[in-house]
Design goal:
The protein is of the alpha+beta class. It contains 2 helices and 10 strands, in the order αββββββββββα. The protein has helices spanning about 1-20, 110-120, and strands at about 20-25, 30-35, 40-45, 50-55, 55-60, 65-70, 75, 80-90, 90-95, 100-105. Strands 1-2-3-4-5-6-7-8-9-10 form a 10-stranded antiparallel barrel. The longest helix is centred in the N-terminal third of the chain and has 18 residues, at about 1-20. About 20% of the residues are buried.
């Protein structure tokens, strides 16, 4: 019974760690640029932390400045409350010219905000 419980716990732990990592690709080059790992966003090539998620906000890791948040379907820059991007399925679309800027391996608000912060700031 203990062995079964141990295996069950091990499988649950492995599955949550596998699914917590998502990758963001730049649309024009199809190259991985970011890794979203739990509450942190890391540069794919250097593995350096760039951003952190705090509640509904994306915050810069070095200065803890609030950068972006979602309002409805749009990603809004906190400093001036302007729409900068929109999540559309697996893609992040730049608001000003409606062109695709990123492809998300795990579509979601967190990955979309990370892509917008990296590619539009």
């Amino acid at each position: 019974m203990r062995n079964i419980l141990f295996l069950f716990c091990l499988l649950i732990g492995m599955s949550t760690s596998v699914f917590s990592q998502c990758y963001v690709k730049e649309y024009s080059t199809n190259r991985r640029i970011l890794k979203v790992d739990g509450d942190y966003v890391l540069d794919y090539s250097s593995n350096q932390r760039l951003y952190k998620f705090e509640n509904e906000y994306l915050v810069s890791y070095s200065g803890y400045k609030r950068l972006l948040k979602f309002e409805g379907d749009y990603i809004v820059r906190v400093s001036d409350y302007k729409r900068v991007a929109k999540l559309d399925g697996n893609y992040v679309i730049q608001y000003s010219n409606y062109r695709r800027i990123a492809v998300l391996d795990c579509p979601g608000r967190r990955s979309a905000m990370a892509a917008a912060a990296y590619l539009l700031n």
